[in-house]
Amino acid sequence: MKNIDSYTHLRGESIFVDDLMIRQDALIGLCFDAPKANGRIVQVDYSKAEAIEGVVRIFTYKDVLGENQIGGIIPDEPLWAEDEVHFWGQPIAFIVATSEAIAKKARVLIEIEIEEFPVITTAKEAKEKGSFINAPRSFNLGDTKSSFKDCDYVFEGETFSNGQEHLYLETQGCYVEPKENGDIKITSSTQGPTQVQKTAAKVLGIPMHKIEVDVTRLGGGFGGKEDQATPWAVMAAVAVQYLNRPVKYILNRHDDLRMTGKRHPYTSFFKIGLTKDLKIHAFEVEFLQNSGAAADLSPAIAERTLFHATNSYFIPNVQTTVYSCKTNLPPNTAFRGFGGPQGMFVIESAIAAAADNMGIDKSNIQECNLLVENNEFSYGQIATEVQAVKAWQTAKEKFNLEALQKETNNFNTVNFQTKKGISVMPIAFGISFTNTPMNHARALIHIYQDGSVGVSTGAVEMGQSVNTKMLQVAQDILGISADKLKLETTNTTRVANTSPTAASSTADLNGKAVEMACTNLIKRLQKIASNLLSKEPENISFSENFVWIDAKKTTLTWGEVIAQAMLERVSLSENAHYATPIINFDKTKEKGHPFAYHVYGTAITSVTLDCLHGTYEIDAVHIIHDFGKSMNLGIDIGQVEGALAQGIGWMTMEEIAYSSDGKLLSNALSTYKVPDIFSAAKKVTVLPLETEGNSMAIKKSKAVGEPPLMYGIGTYFAIQHAVKSFNKNHKLQFNAPFTPEKVLMSLYEK
Ligand code: MTE
Ligand code: LUZ
Ligand code: MOS
Known about the structure:
Shape: globular
Strand order of the largest sheet: 3-5-1-12-9-10-11-20
CATH superfamily of the domain at 373-434 and 595-750: Aldehyde oxidase/xanthine dehydrogenase, molybdopterin binding domain
CATH architecture of the domain at 373-434 and 595-750: 2-Layer Sandwich
CATH topology of the domain at 373-434 and 595-750: Aldehyde Oxidoreductase, domain 4
Bound molecules: ligand MTE, pteridine-2,4(1H,3H)-dione, dioxothiomolybdenum(VI) ion
C-alpha cells in the first residue's frame, strides 16, 4: 500500500495545525521568554506592552487556576516562571493579541529586570557542583571490579556527543477553541494527545473530560513533540479559559529553536578490558547526561542509555552509571533513539580506542563480541532470536567487506592528500517503552451501514506512515478494499488514555489493537454470513469485498452482510485494548525483561577525506537491516534512509552551541547545519535481513522508526579511520560531531 497521505502531500492539500480554518474571533498568542539563563526575577513591567491597541491580555503564572506545573515524570517545571528563571528561553508570560504583528510589537516592550546567578551549561560542571535532576542509576552484570584483573588489555577514555535539534519542518503549535460549558477543544501538533489533555486539565484546574485533544498529523516530531508540544497548547488553553475566544499559537522558527529542548549532550568516561583473544571481558561507563533545567523525559532517556550501553555485544562484566545533570539549558528531551545513540557511541568509542592501542582493525573486536542466542544483557533480559551475527555476516558477504577494506588500504598507500576510511556499525535496539506500564494501546472501529469503515487509534501520524500501516492491518483482516477504509484523526474522545507516539512502538501497540478489534468484528460477520449461506462460520472468510467459503468466492458481498447485520441489530462497532505481554522490569533490582524484542542490523560506511581542507564525502552506506517480515518495505526503507541521514547529521555536522552565559548561538539555519543533498551519502543500499519476523511485532513486521539512526554512528568512525591513515600521530578523540574543523585540526596534530 502506498502511503495514504502521498496524494494530498504532493498536492499541498494535507492539513497541518496552521492550515486549519480558524474562527473569525480567534486571537493570536505569543510567548515572552527569559532573556537570561539563570536568575531571580526582580520585576517585570508589562504596562507598555499592554497599552498597545490589539493586545487583549498578557497571562502569567498568577492567572493559573489549577497548578502551574507541567513536569511529566518529576513535577519540577512551571508552565510560566514565577520568581526565578533557569534557562534562556524559559516562558514567563503569554501575550494574546488580535494579530501576530501586534503581539510581536508588544513583546519587545516588556521590561524585565533579572538578578543574575552563575550559569551552568555543561554536564561536567553540573556534576562537580552536585547539580542533579534525580539520583543516579546503575546497571550491573558480573563483577567489573575483579574482572579487570583478568584482562590482558585495559583502556580508559572520555567521550562527548553533542545535542541535536529536531528541526521538524512544522514548528510547535496549537489552535484552541472554547466549546459550551467551559469545555475546550485543543488541536495540537503533539505526539502525546493524552499528555496535552492531562496537563491542560491540571493547569486549568478542570477535569480531563472537559478537554478534547485532536491531532490530524504532524510535520515531523522526532521526539521533539513527545513532551514539548504540551506547554504551548496549555498556555493557549489558559487564555481560552479566561477569554472564551479561540487562541492560535504557532511558534516561529527562531522562537522554537530558542525555547525548546534538544537531544541530550553526553560526556562519558569509559574503561574497557579485553583478553588476548579480543573478547571484551569488562566494561565500565559513567554517563553524564546534560539534562537541562528541568527533568522533562531525562530520567527515562538516561535509563535507555543504560539499556543500550553495550549495543549489540555480549560483555560478561558490566557496570554502567548515569547521572542526569541539571544545567541552565532548555530541558533536553526525547530525540529518535532516546538516549540509546548516546550509549552506543561510547561503547563504539571504547572499542575504537582499544583497537587503535592494540594496532588492529576495530571490526576485529566488534565481530568477535557480537551477541548470540541466550546471552544476558546487563539488565537481565536473555537475548533470543538474536540476529547480530547473521546481520554482520550478511553485510560482510553481500557488500564484500574484505575487498572494500583492501581497496581502502591500497588507496591510502598510493594517495597522499586524499584518504579513505571505512567502518562497520552493528546495532541492537530494544523495542517497548522501557517504562512497562506505558506499553498499551486501543483502537475503535466503526463499520458504517454502507460498508465503509472508520478506524481510530491512539497513534499519531508524523511522517512515519503509521496510519498507512493501521489501514493495512484493518484491510487485511476485514478483507475489504482500501477505498472502504478511512483513518480518522487521533482524538482523545475516541481513544483515551494513550501513550505518546514514541519508542518506535506505535505501529506494534496500536496495530495489535486494530487487529483485535477487526478480528472481533469479523467473528460477528462470519455468523451472519453463515446463516445467509447455511455454512459453518469456521469455513467463512472475507476477501476482496466478498464472502468466501473455504477457498471459494461466493456472490455474497461485504455490503450485503453489513446490511443484514443492521437488520439483525448486531453491533458494527468495536473497541479493543492491547497490552504487550511478557515484559516486566524491577527498578529496585534493575533487572527484568523490558523489551518485547530487539531490532538488529549492520551498516558498512565508506568515506573519502580531503586532507588539505578537512572536508569529507560519504561514498556509501551499505545496510543489512532486520525488518522482521516487513509489512511495507517502501515505507520501512524510507524510515531507514531518513534515520540514517539524521544519525549522520548528529555525528558529523549538527553542532549545537551555547555561549557560556547560556544563550543559544546556533539559533538559525545559517548557524546550525543539517545534512542536505550534498552532504548525504552518495550511495545508500538497504537490504532486508531474511528472518521469520517476531510475533510480538505487528504482522511480524518489526518496529523501524528509531533503530537505523544509529547506523549514522558508523560515519564518525569511518572518518576517524581516514584521519588516522593520514596522520599516524593523531591521538583518537571521541568528540562528536566530527566537523570538518575538528577533522582539519586532527589531520595536522603533531
Ligand atoms: N519519521 C518521520 N517521517 N517523522 C518523524 O517525526 N519520528 C521518529 C520515527 N520516524 C519520525 C519518523 C521517532 S522519534 C519515532 S519514536 C517513531 O518514528 C515513532 O513512530 P512509530 O512508533 O510508528 O515508529
Ligand atoms: N519514550 C518513552 C520513548 O517515554 N519511553 C521510552 O522508552 C522511549 N523510547 C524511545 C523513544 N521514546
Ligand atoms: Mo521517538 S524519540 O520515541 O519520539
